[in-house]
Structure to design on (170 residues):
């Protein structure tokens, strides 16, 4: 695992696009909506993030191949608790074959260490409410559900609900 640099924008785009499409393509009402969402994974979007002073991204590899990444943005309050001192996990994706091998935990531990170093009081994220596998994984990492929201994008009505989860930093 290593911290991503500006030179990794295309790699992050590939991982994010592939992981998102494999996991969430079926929630979209039409191909246009999915295409618009996948466009948010363009290399230029990652380049902007990688140049932000408040954002850090880590890339994990498995046997020398890209396996996943996590992006953390410091100084963002949770929409549920609205408390200061938050750090948001904005993107956390693993490629399918990398799941269940401790890579997600290693990425999370890097983000937790960074958040602790910069003085964040808690981590937070949001996720699709129907993604029970993800909710369980975050609970194992110490998160708890603190709120709900709804997507306004063109996703199926039964897939619009989102959960907000938070985890205190000791």
């Amino acid at each position: 695992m290593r911290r991503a640099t500006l030179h990794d924008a295309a790699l992050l785009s590939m991982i994010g696009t592939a992981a998102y499409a494999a996991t969430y393509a079926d929630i979209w009402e039409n191909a246009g909506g999915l295409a618009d969402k996948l466009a948010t994974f363009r290399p230029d979007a990652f380049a902007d993030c990688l140049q932000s002073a408040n954002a850090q991204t880590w890339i994990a590899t498995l046997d020398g191949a890209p396996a996943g990444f996590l992006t953390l943005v410091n100084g963002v309050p949770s929409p549920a608790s609205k408390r200061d001192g938050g750090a948001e996990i904005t993107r956390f994706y693993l490629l399918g074959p990398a799941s269940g091998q401790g890579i997600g935990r290693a990425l999370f531990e890097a983000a937790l260490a960074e958040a602790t170093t910069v003085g964040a009081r808690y981590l937070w994220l949001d996720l699709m409410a129907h993604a029970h596998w993800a909710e369980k994984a975050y609970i194992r990492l110490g998160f708890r559900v603190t709120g709900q929201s709804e997507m306004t994008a063109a996703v199926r009505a039964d897939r619009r609900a989102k959960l907000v989860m938070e985890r205190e930093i000791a």
